[in-house]
Amino acid sequence: MDALQAILTRASVRDFTDQPISDGDLHTILEAGMSGPSCVNARDWSFLVTRDPEILTKMAEANGRPAEPLKKATLGILVLGDLERAFPRAPEYWVVDGSIACQNMILAAKALGIGSVWLGTWPQMDRVERQQALFDLPETVVPHSLIAFGYPADPELKGRGFYEEDRVHMDKW
Question: d(Cα 89, Cα 66) in Å, to the nearest integer?
Answer without folding.
Answer: 34
